[in-house]
Amino acid sequence: MTSTASPQVQSAADMEARMQDPHWWRQAAVYQIYPRSFADSNGDGIGDLPGITSRIPYLKSLGVDAVWLSPFYPSALADGGYDVDDYRNVDPKLGTLADFDEMIAALHAAGIKLIADIVPNHTSNRHAWFQEALASPKGSAARNRYIFRDGLGPNGDEPPSDWDSVFGGPAWERTEDGQWYMHIFAKEQPDLNWDNREVRDDFLTTLRFWSDRGVDGFRVDVAHALTKDMTEPLASKADLGAENDNNNGKHPFWDRDEVHEVFAEWRRVFNEYTPPRTAVAEAWVHADRRARYASPEGLGQAFNFDLLKADWNHGQFRDIITKNLAEAKLSGASSTWVFSNHDVVRHATRYGLPVSAPADPDRQDGSAWLMSGGKEPVLDHTLGERRARAVSQLMLALPGSAYLYQGEELGLHEVADIADEHRQDPTFFRNKGVDIGRDGCRVPLPWTMEGISFGFGSGGAHLPQPEWFGRYAVEAQEDDPASSLSFYRRALELRRELQTEEGFEWIAAASPEVLHFTRPNGWQCVTNFGSTPANLPAGKVLLSSSPLQDGMLPGAATVWLI
């Protein structure tokens, strides 16, 4: 790593200006925390809110603008916290509302915003509403908050449709009185009926509840699945396209046009606050329809997962960047960029594996490697880490929001060899032998080189940490100027110094496998996707993801110049 620029210290006035800026989100660096795996304050093996509060100095030293907090609500963890029992409370295993208030106050004091995950498509089956629905008769107001239907066949023994759950098996579960309820995901996640005014109003109350406590924005889970057309007879799955192939808003439960009426109401609530609350949609939709979720009259921003699905290929990267920046300009939003999160194989691992056809053709996900327990194909750890740094530095130079997943700043790899008895992800249990699940990217972080849980807490960890985690611990990297952690800190510091307006221009590169673009203020980013060193343009080197070779940019490396 090469860095020649001197650091800048942010003044209190600068920090306050950023906190009050209504457009702070447009080019923010956002750090995703999976709370159960970040830091454990009480030694029970589960990360918690006081643990996060204790690590805020680390987040400040990293240089992020905001934290995206994955679900922290009461939950049975049928889907990692995305099965919510109570939308206006904290899981007792993670803390209390007082702990939440202390955490957000400490984040704000450090100049860091908070984006809370919200899960509006479904509740858990333990939610008070669903328990009331099960205890109520067919056709009751309690059942109308969800999607209940009579079954098919002479005795109603067959599901109302042949639709599949995303997690495998049917999308319907039968109740004791013979009716069926719909669940796009796990059976413990019954879908809400967003045609019901009571449901819509209750979520407006929830948005205000957390906004009043200081939450700065919301990440909206499965934003494209809320509204549904349940007109009978229900369509056969043979007549339905894939989740993100639909381009007309007519799929019965994915990306229907009516969902934007919901988000227009949400926007009116967000605009009640100063600065307005922000939101970003998780919407796996056809590219032509993503801009609607990012509308200023709606959520304002939508996740773009295209780089996350890209191979190590300069042509793919150029096409994706060009297309998404054009999309953002049309919508008036800014784009989002991400390589890792709680649902996918860490990108240091993905980029260290040979390119092969994945189980899901829409994503280069390393699934075959995971299914082998990390044995086949052979993972090139060093190459993966080198490429991960290069693309992360490229991402941080792009206009728009950059989303980082906890541990990527340490260069962490995916944990593949988790024994079956320790796995937690429902996708593993529902699709044994087909899907290994997402536990490998959710293993608790290593803070120290030794200890029962590498400093995660005073006890063990809810998912087993491999012995090699110690080499990647914060303690091992803290004072090493060549470490991955030092690289991320410097990159984020420079990014804040260099960012101005959202300008961008491609520059013709000398080598066909080199991507070169410029940003305002003369900031240039050059990435070499090839295997041989490439000539650099004239300019002062600010940061390089790997050391230069005789003044040239080596393969699998990015440099910033000015």
Molecular structure report:
With 562 residues, the protein is of the alpha/beta class. The longest helix has 18 residues, at 314-331. Helix 6 (197-212) runs parallel beside helix 7 (259-270). The chain is built from 15 helices and 16 strands. 25% of the residues lie in helices and 11% in strands. Helix 7 links the parallel strand 8 (217-220) and strand 9 (278-281). The strands form three sheets. A seven-stranded parallel beta sheet has the order 9-8-4-3-2-11-10, with helices on one face.
Helical residue percent band: 25-40%
Radius of gyration: 23 Å
Basic shape: globular
Q: What is the number of strand segments?
A: 16
End-to-end gap = 17 Å
Main sheet makeup: 7 strands, parallel
Q: How many individual helices?
A: 15
Briefly, what is this?
This protein is α/β, with parallel strands linked by helices and 562 residues long. Helices cover 25% and strands 11% of the residues.
Label this structure with key terms.
562 residues; alpha/beta; 7-stranded parallel beta sheet; 6-stranded antiparallel beta sheet; 15 helices; 11% strand; globular
